[in-house]
Every structure is written in structure tokens, then in C-alpha cells.
């Protein structure tokens, strides 16, 4: 005869999306975050005033917004009309957008900084030069979110060991510019096959120097 065993379920505290969260120096009123969404409406890579309405419509007191991926330098452009933050003009264009969000009260606004690396082509590069990467392997096109597969990439130029610190510095300067523009913090885009991700992925990074994959 088998004895009946009663398994007591340990009570688990339920954490809801509207539970406050302490993130470093920031106290969020809830746990829903606006993720970065590239809209390609920054004509000439200059943030436009219509972004004030876009972000304001998604702003709630005590929340966190992460701005759309913002390019750190001219060589980092991978798409047409994306935000930039490497020039004084771009920094000044961001300020009224950030100020408008903060004016709604208790809102935290982060900038996501980004470099496309080999996820680009000559059309977006200064002087139609080859895009840069950790490798010289061509990026193979895949289906885009809109269902099309007509993206064309240019074979990248492999960065030299001495060039790489320049790009590290560009990220540093972009972060500094973001804070000058009034952002509360900075997120570094390291996913989706862009420049930093190219260095991290051992299927892509075929270097044999100190920046090589393993």
C-alpha cells in the first residue's frame, strides 16, 4: 500500500509589471520599458522635432524609455536617415526632444548608441568607402522585417589592430554627447550582428590578434 503524500507548494511572491523597480540610481514605477525602435526619420542623421510627439505619446510618469539606435560616427551608418550623435548639431537637435520628455515629469530617457559595422554598404559610407568590421567576410542578406530580401552589403574592410581603439573612443564620445544632450543614461547596442556583436561572435571574428574570437 502506497502512502499518499501531500506536496506542499511553496508560495511564490508574484511580481507584477506594475511593481516598482530600483535600477541603480533610478527608481522606476513599473517594469515595462519602451525598447529602441529605429524609424529612419532623422533626415540627414539629424534628430527631427516630430520625435517630440513620438516619444511623448509613449511617456508615462516613472517609466524608462530607450531611444532608437543612434549612430556614433559617420562610418557607423547602416540605414538611411537614422539618428546620429557625433556632431554638435546632432547633440543640439536632441536637446529639445529630451527636454520635452523630462518636462512630463519623472521620466528616465536613455540613448542607445550604435555602429553598424559590416551591416552597411558603400551607399551609406563617407566617400563610398567600404564599411568596417573585425573581418573582411561579406554579410549574407537575410529576410528583412518587411518581408523583402533585397538588402545589398559591401564586403567590409578588416580593421587594423591600431584602428580599433579609435572606434572604442567613438563610443566613449557618443556616450559623453548623449549626457550633454540631457539623456539620463546610455545603452550600448551589442546585438543583431552589428559592429560589437561582430567582434563577439566567433563565427564572424576570424582575427588572430588580441581582438580575435575564440
UniProtKB/TrEMBL annotation:
InterPro entries: Aldolase_TIM (IPR013785), OxRdtase_FMN_N (IPR001155), Oye-like (IPR045247). Keywords: Flavoprotein, FMN, NADP. Pfam families: Oxidored_FMN. This is NADH:flavin oxidoreductase/NADH oxidase N-terminal domain-containing protein. Residues 17-214 form the NADH:flavin oxidoreductase/NADH oxidase N-terminal domain. The keyword NADP applies. Its cofactor is FMN. Belongs to the NADH:flavin oxidoreductase/NADH oxidase family.
Amino acid at each position: 500500500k502506497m502512502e499518499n503524500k501531500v506536496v506542499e507548494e511553496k508560495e511564490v511572491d508574484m511580481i507584477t509589471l506594475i511593481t516598482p523597480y530600483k535600477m541603480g540610481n533610478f527608481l522606476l514605477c513599473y517594469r515595462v520599458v519602451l525598447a529602441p525602435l529605429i524609424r529612419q526619420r532623422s533626415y540627414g542623421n539629424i534628430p527631427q522635432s516630430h520625435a517630440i510627439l513620438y516619444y511623448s505619446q509613449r511617456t508615462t510618469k516613472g517609466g524608462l524609455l530607450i531611444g532608437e539606435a543612434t549612430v556614433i560616427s559617420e562610418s557607423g551608418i547602416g540605414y538611411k536617415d537614422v539618428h546620429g550623435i557625433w556632431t554638435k548639431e546632432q547633440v543640439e537637435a536632441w536637446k529639445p526632444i529630451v527636454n520635452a520628455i523630462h518636462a512630463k515629469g519623472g521620466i528616465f530617457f536613455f540613448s542607445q548608441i550604435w555602429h553598424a559595422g559590416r551591416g552597411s554598404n558603400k551607399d551609406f559610407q563617407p566617400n563610398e568607402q567600404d564599411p568596417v568590421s573585425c573581418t573582411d567576410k561579406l554579410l549574407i542578406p537575410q529576410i528583412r522585417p518587411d518581408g523583402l530580401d533585397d538588402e545589398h552589403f559591401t564586403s567590409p574592410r578588416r580593421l587594423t589592430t591600431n584602428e580599433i581603439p579609435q572606434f572604442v573612443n567613438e563610443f566613449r564620445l557618443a556616450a559623453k554627447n548623449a549626457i550633454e544632450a540631457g539623456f539620463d543614461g546610455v545603452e550600448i547596442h551589442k546585438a543583431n550582428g552589428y559592429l560589437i556583436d561582430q567582434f563577439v561572435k566567433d563565427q564572424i571574428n576570424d582575427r588572430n590578434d588580441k581582438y580575435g574570437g575564440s
